[in-house]
Every structure is written in C-alpha cells, then in structure tokens.
TrEMBL record:
Listed Basic residues bias regions: 352-364
Name of the protein described by the UniProt record: Uncharacterized protein
Basic and acidic residues bias locations: 314-351
Ranges where the record places region Disordered: 314-364
Amino acid sequence: MKVASSNFYKSCDNLPELFKFMFPGPITNVFTMSKIFDKILGVFQRQEPLVHSLHDECTQLVKTLMNQFLKKDVLEGKRLRDLLQLDLSKPDVQCLDQDLEVGESAKKALAKLTVDQRKIPLHGMRSFLQVTTKYLMNKLPLHNVFLRDLNILHPEMQDVESGHRCIRRLAQKLLQIFKPDEIAVLLDEFKVYQQKNIPDGWSHTEKGDTITYHRIHHYWAKVLNMRNQSGDKIFPVLAKLVKATLCLLHGNADVKRSLSVAKKVLGTEWTLLTAESINGLRLVDDAVKSEGENIPRMTYSKEMLKSVRDAHREYHSRLEKMKQADEARKKEQTKEKEKARKRKEEKEYEQKKRKQINRRKVAD
C-alpha cells in the first residue's frame, strides 16, 4: 500500500498546479478506500463473539476491493478459490479507466483534465488498488478452513446442506474437547438442530426493511437451553462445540480493551492485588456492563447478597490458607536443606575415612 501510494504521489508531479490544488495526490482516493476499511474495522471493534463472521467479512472485503478495478464478468459467479488464483496485473481482467471506482470527488477533479492528463493519476489509483488487494489476499485468513467452517454457527446457516460436514471438520480439529465416540453424537444433535423451528426473534429483529442480528452467544444460549419432554437438554454435546469456538478471539481489540480495564481497576494504589481479587473486580465490571451500566436495574439475588456479606470472611480465610501454605513450603525447604546438609556431612566423612585407610596402606 505504501509503495503504491508513493508511486502515485510521484506521478502527480507532472500534473498542472491547478489539479494539484484541487486533487492533492491520492488523498481523495485513499479517503474513498477508508470507507471500505471503516466498515470491517467497526464490525470487529464490537464487544461480542465474532470469530464465526471473520472469514466471511474478510472475503467480502477482498471482493469489494476487486470490484473497484476488475471487470464485472471476471468476478461474476466466481468462488473465492477461483478469485484468489486471479492474476490482478493482467490487463484483460481489469476494467476500463472510465469504469474505475475512485469516488465522486476524484471523478469531478478528473473531469477537468484532458484525456492524457487523466492517465497519470488513474494509473496510480489502479496500482494502489492492485497492491492493496494483493497484500490482503496474502495476509488475510482466506485459506483457513477452520474459520470458514465456523460460519455454520450463524443463525442464517441453519439449513445449509453441507453444515454437518463443517461440524465434523470443526470437531476433528477440537479432539482435546471431544472424545472420538462423541463426534457421531455431535452430528446427530446438529441434524436435530437443523430440523428445529427456531423463532426468528431469537436471532434478529426486523424494523421495516432493516434486519438487526442479535449477538451470537445470546442466540445460542437460547438454543442450547432447549429441553425435551423429560426435561433434559437437547444439545449437550453441540453446546461443547459452540462454547469452545465462540471463546476464540477474532482479533486483538478484546485483549487491548481488557488491558485498559485492568489498568483502570488497579489504578495507582491497588498494585498489590492478587490474581483472585483482580478477577473478582473484573467480574463485577463485566456484570455491570452487561446491564448497560445501569446498576439500579441489576438483579440482586440472595446468593449475591450472601457472597457480599461473606466476602470479608472469605478474604481472611484465603489469607490464612495462603499463610499455612507458605509455612508448609518453608518447612519443606528447611527439611530439604537439612537433608542436603546431612548428605554433605556423610560424604565428607566417607572421604575422610577413605583417606585414612589409604594412609595406613601406604604406611604398611
């Protein structure tokens, strides 16, 4: 991206001064491009499990960039596998200059130039799009089958015929969670899930032509809580797969956000908190956020109130256990030192005894 941008700036040196003033290098083009990236960056800044959407969002990003400078008939009907094999530098796959998507501001500025003058900035824009797309094709996890299969967890993918194959591949990658004989049970449960009539309100809400999807873990929490007539949960093994996969991070935004929260929790005076105390404070913070930071609206159960009352006693109990463990460790260390000292004395005694025997032999 930097190379293409640099070349584009250099190409602008030959443009008239008026055009430089109205259209300063690739700024307008980059601004148009930023709108494309703002969308996917905004999606993955949300505080919810999104790993199931990662592959699809990356695919859509690459396709959107390709639509900026490639012919429509080249892209139409192509699968991702075929698109990744395209040679983007070939002229026969690229669209004409007048069809290049550069944004309305850039088009207005280009319209004031002659045909020959337009070629220079358009070439730079095309190079910028090519380099950007190639870079993303190499860096994004577009070939990752595991991430692609995770898309089956989306509510809209419930009826997909190949869904059971995706579930099988996911389970085979998670053998530390599933026993070999559980995979067959998992597939049976998923087929039952596909046949279930899930209420639309569990996955999304509709307002006119706008569809707003609920958080994926809220949807699956309701699905996995479904029970049969005996009161048993219908999807106990499928629940293991859903929980294991939705716990995977889709980026580093959650990690950075977690570090920021931990920094606020610790402050400047609470630097000696134990890991248990920090986790407890984080749990409180997460609970408050889950209620929209509206503390009066939170539900206070008897168990929660009892935990608050017993917190001080539990704290002292934990300190006492830590003290006892520390004393036991010190006693163990003392015993080990005493054993080492005795072994050393015995060794020295044996060496001294051998020397005395050797002296007697020499004297005789």
